[in-house]
Structures are given as structure tokens and as C-alpha cells.
Fold this sequence. Notes:
Layout: E1 8-11, H1 17-25, E2 30-33, H2 37-44, H3 55-61, E3 66-69, E4 80-83, H4 98-108, E5 116-119, H5 127-140, E6 149-152, E7 171-175, H6 178-189, E8 196-198, H7 202-232, H8 237-244, H9 266-276, H10 282-308, E9 317-321, H11 337-346, E10 350-354, H12 360-367, E11 380-383, H13 388-391, E12 405-408, E13 420-421
Parallel strand pairs: 1-2, 1-4, 2-3, 4-5, 5-6, 7-8, 9-10, 9-11, 11-12, 12-13
Antiparallel strand pairs: 6-7
Helix pairs in contact: 4-5, 7-9, 7-10, 10-11
Amino acid sequence: MxxxxxxxxxxxxxxxxxxxxxxxxxxxxxxxxxxxxQRVARLNSFQDDTLEISTPELEAVVGKTLLPTTxxxxxKDCNYYIVxxxxxxxxNKIPDLTPLEKSSVxxxxxxxxxxxxxxxxxxxxxxxxxxxxxxxxxxxxxxxxRDFFLGYSPERINPGDKEHTVTKILKIVxxxxxxxxxxxxxxxxxxxxxGIYKASSIKTxxxxxxxxxxxxxxxxxxxxxxxxxxxxxxxxxxEVLEAAGTKWNFxxxxxxxxxxxxxxxxxYYLAYKAQEVGFNPEMxxxxxxxxDTMGSFVAHKLVKLMSQNGLPIAQGKVLILGVTFKENCPxxxxxxxxxxxxxxxxxxMDVSLYDPxxxxxxxxxxxxxxxxxxxxxxxxxxxxVAHDQFEALDMEALKKQPQTVLYDLKGIYPKNTVDxxx
Length: 422
């Protein structure tokens, strides 16, 4: 059943979909569909605002083998559909499958006999077959594993990482039949140089993906809890971890703010499914609770440091360096830093945010906060994100007075130059 002339439709052109579309477009014709008209227009002008793909890379394929579009019509001739839409959680930390369901409706209306639909979005084990499959069958009127087929190949994109790019990361693939598994392994194998891992089932591949980030979340929660303990014991957490790290099998995680679309979200998907089958996932949710408290801890710690230095709290001028969820990328999804800014504002502080990597319009839209481009002097400076640009900043020039607090969450400045580290 291998299709000799694949034409691939990518549903969603974000951090996951675009790199995949560009990789496939070097070998096959690709239609990239996204509902964001501004995003598609920028891509057709060879500009990727996520900074994952360079202008020369886009110029090589866009308008040739890759068509970014907001129109459904060009997708009709595709025989592989790969869904790469986000899977967020609601305010109540419940999986929000709305983008996945809407994408399934769109694809279902397009399905023809022999087509294969692959999902890459992170979900809980069973979601592809329990949620997406019925929608595809209903919208298409076709029969599963007779007329059309399913696959799941979890994304492993690391935003901002120029070393571990999509083609250089081992790719898990799974299929609804053994033949589909081999077909997808061959298809992805054309672009993935790091190799292909064939999972035994779609559900296994879904579970493998969701535990990758859940494991990291739990490990980070452990060192975050250590940071909370060591703060009370007047110990420098980084120094303790450095000492402990001299043992060969010590896992070298560091404390920090857990944001982004993966580590801070995926554990809720696994917890949701666990609870659905009657199991209370205590460790997973405990880790989430610890990591979710870190923003408030940072805000209160900064206030405490300012008070100890005799600095004003109300009307105190504070600069936060960085608003993205990680260094050297413009991704602000689920960043914890805006919550810190809002909490400091609740104390009556005059808070400024500076981030040369973030897009000011997105920050304003998502968090109701403005970015500054005019650095002045401040009563406190909070280094929240380790952008490369910040290492060269003259921190002394940012001080409004000698006792200005410098709080370094990322440990990029020498200990003797700052008032506090996480």
C-alpha cells in the first residue's frame, strides 16, 4: 500500500509543523495549512517569526515544493495528512483538545481511500483512536483501516535549539496496521537522519511522548523543592548541586521556572488519563504543584531582598530581564515570568520588562504587558531568562543606587556580583 508519489499536507505551521514541512519539502510536494493569516503571509515572504527556519531555507522551498496557505482547497490532493496543532490545557488544567478536534474535522472532510493521517501533537495515551478517529470516520464516511489509516509520531522539537533540529532527533513512529507502520517509517526515514524507532502501537507512542516531559517536570520539581528548602537554610542551591554533581550518577538538573508548551503542560494530560481510569497520580501532580509555586516564590523573594536593602517596595522600579519561557527563542507560551510581573505590580511596584527575543505584540496580547526598549536605572533587576544578549549587559549601569538588588534566577553572573540566586 506504499504510496509511490507522496503529497503531504501539514496541518499547523508553528514550532513543530514548519520545520517538518520544510524538511519534507526537500523531497516531496508539501501543502502547509494554518488558520493564522499573518503567519502564512510572513512565511510566503520567507520570514519565520519563530526563528526556527532561516530566510534562505524558506526561499529554497516556499513557492516551489512548499505551499503555505490558509485555504483548505490545496489540501485535497494530499495523500498523507500530518497534524501538528497545539494541545494546551484549560485554566483548570484539563486537556483542551479543541485544536485537535477542529483539525480532525478539516482532515476528515478531505479524506480519500488510501489516505494516511498522522498526529504529532502531544496527547494522553489513547486520544488519537478515542477522540480523533471517530471524527475522521464521521466526517469522511470512510472505514478505518480499510479506506484510510492512522499513525502517531510524537514531535520532539526543542524551540531555539539549533543543534537538535527535527531531522537530527530520533523519530518515533507508529501505525494502525503493520503495513502502515512500515510505510510511515519509510516516509519519515527520508528526512530524519537520526533514525526511526518503530513503536508497537499508537497508544505506546502516545505514552512514550507524554512521559518524556513528565519525567523532566518531576526532576525539576525535585531541585525546585531543594531550592525552597535551602533558601530557608541560607544555603546556595547552585553550590550544593555542584558539589553533589561530582558523583558520577547524580542527575544534573537545575532549579527554575517551568514554562513552555511541553514540560508545564504534558503532565496534566497523563494525570487526566490516569484519573479517568481510577488512579490518582500523586507524584506527577505533586511535581506540578511545586513547579507552579516557583513564580510566586521568586516574587516574594525579590520583595524580601529589596526590603533587606532598605529599598522602596511601593513605587519601587524593577526591571525584569526576559519574558520568553526559555533562552534565545521568542516563544512566550505558558511563560511564568508575566505572573511574576503581575504579582510585583500588585505590590505597587513600577515593573519594566525587557526582552530582545520576544515580540511585543504577542506579549501585550497574551499577558497584557508591555515591553520596554529603553533601559534606565532601577531599584531591583531580576534576571529571569538567560538570553545570550544579557551576559554582555553592564549590570552596574542599571543600578539606581548602590543597594539596588540584582537577583539572578539563571546563575549566569558571578555569585559575588548579585544579591540572590535561585
